Amino acid sequence: MLSSSKRAFILLSVALVAACTEPSSNGPSDGGASPPTDAADRSDGSLDASLDAGFWDAAEDAQDSGPFDGGGSDPDWEPLAEPLNQCDFQMATNPAAVEPIVWQDCPGVPSENGCRYMRLDWSDERRRLSDAVSTRRENCFVVAEADGEVRNAFFLEELPCVDCFPPILFGLNDDQFSLDLRSFESCDQWASYHDAVALVGAVGGPVAAALSHERVPPGRGFRSHVSNRWIAEWDVAKAVSVVDRETLLEQQVFGPGDDPDGLVPREVTVSDEGVFFVTSGGSNRSGIMSWDPVAGTRRFQRWPGDTSRGAGNFSTDGTDMVWTLSEGRDPEFLTDGYPVSSIMTAPFTTDPEVVQATGRRLRSDPARWLIGHSETFVVGCGYAARAFGGDGDVIIVRLSDGAAWIPESRPEFTWVGVVGVTCDEFFGLAAGPIEGAPLTVTIARMRLDALGEPLPPD
Predict the structure, then answer these.
(1) Helix (H) or strand (E) holding 59
(2) CA 298 to chain centre
(3) What does residue 161 show for φ and ψ, rounded to 5 degrees?
């Protein structure tokens, strides 16, 4: 999610969260790759163990040791001040020494379409433009410009505790990022207590521990979302709290029992002006809540007791808001989808009355279910995009008129998710037998002007 005040940075150099392999004095072989301006790739942690293994076999065959040699200089790794359970988590004081992202032409896609993917020996199991997760040992977590240098880099040494180290969550918003670290007391993560620390910082700047929790019980977890002004902490499926980054004062803005229908918070979106979160529950019930420091928490697009309609898939770049409004469901058949689902937009606001007055329908939403998270919209520069249907389809919508594109998928290169959108390009997740792996999910990009004629609004 972007804010208008930071759009220039995002558009001039699309910030990308990624991960790589262990630092080494040897740079990666070119593996036949084209220069950094010629290509693109990405990968997804939803792959099962056998597919992951195939991906890593192919990636290791294509490289010598890892993309840490940025022309012979040293990233200069230094330990962070607050390691977790003896895990050696380090930060590069010279991140520009880490190799920049290298892109290649998408397999099976005509070059004139401008489709490129990130080279496999650079990337890790799962990537998002605004969110990344990795479970691989010896990880480097990188904040980098899509067509420029690495701005921040972090490295987790392979130590005994890493065997029990869970996924590390990475969030990127505007020019701010958060890194959620967790370490468990035993390798049985589902039954183990764990410690949690949230690191936050500015792209290209220092980071600091902002939030921490000791001995979090099994089944409970925390996820941080950051803007320049706020840290919104999601107590998974239970509560949402907001921390003022200047004063470090924390307040819970939504907690257990706050929703009259028992819905719980899910996806969280934070901007400098306020926080949004989707609440959801059984029978595909869903609504959108907003919070700002003046008015507090309000029902933004939420109708308690009304099971005939719902809202979800919310996102904003600080200028435009986009969400799905679903209506017309028979309250006697709550297991059915909604007969009518529409993609909606409105200028940014946290006020429910304002959004009710300014919201407008763009076109039909192709999905009948208000799912969420991986299907949540990504908004930027007058466009919105999201995955839908559960079978890998992606829709890109122009906010000015509701025109849309569903990028063509091919057997060797199938679009399966959304990463981000700029004024010129769509970034998404694509799957295929790339670079010898049986099936790999990678980050890829395509020029918007190469998408062809749009579908008219309906």
Answers:
(1) helix 49-61
(2) 25
(3) -70, -20
Edge-first strand order for the sheet with 425-432 is 103-105, 116-118, 440-447, 425-432, 414-421
CA pair distance 424, 451, nearest whole angstrom: 11
Query: Nearest to residue 228, comparing CAs of 9, 14, 399, 78?
Result: 9
Element (H, E) at 151: strand 150-156
Q: Could you please report the per-residue DSSP string of 164-207?
A: G--PEEEEEETTEEEEEEEEESSS-GGG--EEEEEEEEETTS-E
CB atoms within 10 A of CB 220: 14
Under the phi-then-psi rule, with left for phi > 0, alpha for psi from -120 to 50, and beta for the rest, what region is 253? alpha
Nearby residues of 342 by Cβ (< 8 Å), 6 or more positions away: 324, 325, 326, 327, 361, 362, 363, 364, 365
Q: For residue 250, which of 262, 263, 235, 260 has the smallest C-alpha distance?
A: 235
Instruction: Between 50 and 350, name the one with better pLDDT.
Output: 350
Higher pLDDT, 371 or 457: 457
Note the pLDDT of residue 236. Answer: 85
User: What topology does CATH give the domain 4-449?
Assistant: Methylamine Dehydrogenase; Chain H (2.130.10)
For the stretch 255-295, pLDDT in tens is 999 999 999 998 899 999 999 999 988 777 899 999 999 99
3-state secondary structure of 283: coil
Please give the full DSSP string across 132-148, using - where no structure is assigned.
EEE--SSEEEEEEETTS
| Beta pairing class for 393-398 and 378-380 | unpaired
Q: How far apart are CA 349 and CA 381, in angstroms?
A: 17
What are the beta bridge partners of residue 181?
197
DSSP string, 198-259: EEEEETTS-EEEEEEEEEEPTT--EEEEE-SSEEEEEETTTEEEEEETTT--EEEEE-TT-S
Q: Round to whole Å and give the CA distance between 7 and 44.
A: 26
Q: Domain ranges in the chain? A: 4-449
